[in-house]
Write a structure and sequence with these properties.
Layout lengths: L2 H20 L6 H12 L6 H7 L3 H4 L2 H13 L5 H17 L5
Helix pairs in contact: 1-5, 1-6, 2-6, 3-5, 5-6
Amino acid sequence: MTDALAASLTHSAQALHSDLLAGTWTPSPQERLLAECVAYTDWTEHSPRTALRDIPDHVRSGHLVAVLHPAIQVAENIGTPASDTALQKLRALIGAVAPDIW
């Protein structure tokens, strides 16, 4: 994983979070369910891969998965500043998509 990938994840998570708050993106019910599942997990190097393993194809093509997928590689470097910042922004997005969980 490079800092560039972590920076890209940071940007993507912030952009999708902004779109959600602005009302220009509304997650599908399946994306909300995915966010709820992710919100309940402990954030480890394996949690993004586990969350994305068995999701249906129609969810796989959504905006949330597009942001979650790079987190697989970023999470492998938990503890580095770039990785931690990116995952913090991703958790903020997940919290906004599934506010009843957080």
